[in-house]
Amino acid sequence: MAPNDTKLTIGGVIGQDGTAAEPFDYAKRAQWLRAAVLGANDGLVSTASLMMGVGAVKSDAKAMVLSGFAGLVAGACSMAIGEFVSVYSQYDIEVAQMKREKLATGGSSDEERESRDRLPSPLQAAVASALAFAVGAMVPLLAAAFIGSYRVRLGVVAAAATTALAVFGSVGAVLGHAPVGRSCGRVVVGGGWPWRSPLG
């Protein structure tokens, strides 16, 4: 084994010096990963659904793209604000609980510092959610922008959205170290229904 290599074990990781290193805590990613997955899926599904709805009554590509862009801007702002307020409420509750536990048990400042390190970040969740929403919304926008034929455009938007759902589900599973197949299938099935009606 090369000097810089590490080796996985059941209990964690063996470092360069042969001692057991702390295993990576994937739960630390849960807060921003949840916001990012939710934002990406919401941006993709809501924007694609909006564009498909407009496309079902108006065959003009410009109207379809403009509606999608408006949905992107409004949705990203809404997701950021909603995520910030939601996570800040969770933050306040956890801080209050920490203070009650410290008064009850007389915990040390080191324990309190460690607990605060595990608190959710409202700003991080808001930024992750807004950026992810914008990324998700860009998929149907780019898919529709360069297609002239009305029916082909609808089909391409639906196909691009379904493919992106599978990608988002897989990426989220890999980052969270969860089963890829189950996550991918759940995201595709859960997010794929809104644009079946316009195509049907």
From TrEMBL:
It is found in: Vacuole membrane. InterPro entries: Ccc1_fam. GO terms for biological process: intracellular manganese ion homeostasis. Keywords: Ion transport, Iron, Iron transport, Membrane, Transmembrane, Transmembrane helix, Transport, Vacuole. GO terms for cellular component: vacuolar membrane. The chain crosses the membrane at residues 123-148, 154-176. It catalyses: Fe(2+)(in) = Fe(2+)(out). One of its GO terms (molecular function) is iron ion sequestering activity. It is a multi-pass membrane protein. It comes from the Eukaryota. The keyword Magnesium does not apply. Vacuolar Fe(2+) uptake transporter. This is Vacuolar iron transporter.
